[in-house]
Amino acid sequence: MTHRAPGTREPVTAGDLAAAVAGSVDALRAGLDADWSVRAGGLEWSCRDTAEHLADDLFCYAAQLGSGITDHPLPLAVAATRPGGSVGSIRAAPDAGPEGLLEIVAACGALLVAVVSTARPGQRGFHVFGAADAVASAAMGILETVVHTHDLAQGLGLAYRPDPDVCARVLARLMPAVDPGDDPWEALLRATGRRGDVGRWRWWNEVS
User: Fold this and answer.
1) Tens of pLDDT along 101-123?
2) How far is residue 173 from each of residues 13, 54, 78, 141, 164, measured CA to CA in Å?
3) Which residues contact 175 (CB under 8 A, 6 or more apart)?
4) What are the residue boundaries of the structural domains of the chain, listed by start?
5) What pLDDT is stored for residue 207 in this prediction?
6) How far apart are CA 71 and CA 62, in angstroms?
């Protein structure tokens, strides 16, 4: 049995990531008939752009961790579909509606879950915030999923609130200086600039 110091938390798992992606897709299904061309919360991107960006994040984290390359990003071709849109490798077909976007998010989330689940001990992948091991990659995937689902839910007029315990564990892994307080979800939103400008925010993959 592993003994943890008082106040420490269990690590983020592939199961947590799978649940976060499933929760995101379930919440966003309530907005399938909404206008996905509107801005996603406080972002400059549309809801469609943001969903593609989320899928791209999940795919890229899976690809980077799976590659085991830590000193440079994979040479994936990236592009934006319109001026000012998100830049990425994963794009939905032009005629894909919201249902198609959610299918792509779910599929890319499943890829990251699979890679996190099968990564060998010590395996890491490149990221600008430090080479990420399997736990950090799962935490990154959850962070991207919950904050961008929040953005999408704001734009689409939907209710959304992820598991606060998972949010606390994501903060402990990626942003250990952030106090989760009584509401780790609100703390995560503040730390990522969703409750006012916090400047250039970041996380730390190599802190564990």
Assistant:
1) 999 999 999 999 999 999 999 99
2) 11, 20, 29, 12, 14
3) 191, 203, 204
4) 14-162
5) 75
6) 16
d(CA 54, CA 76): 16
d(CA 37, CA 77): 25
Classify domain 14-162 by CATH architecture.
Up-down Bundle (1.20)
Q: Does the pLDDT at position 49 exceed 70?
A: yes
Pick from 17, 61, 2: nearest CA to 166: 17
Q: What is the mean pLDDT of the chain?
A: 93
85: pLDDT strictly greater than 90: no
Instruction: Give the pair of three-digit tokens for residue 165.
Output: 């315990």
Phi, psi angle pair for 88, to nearest 5°: -170, 180
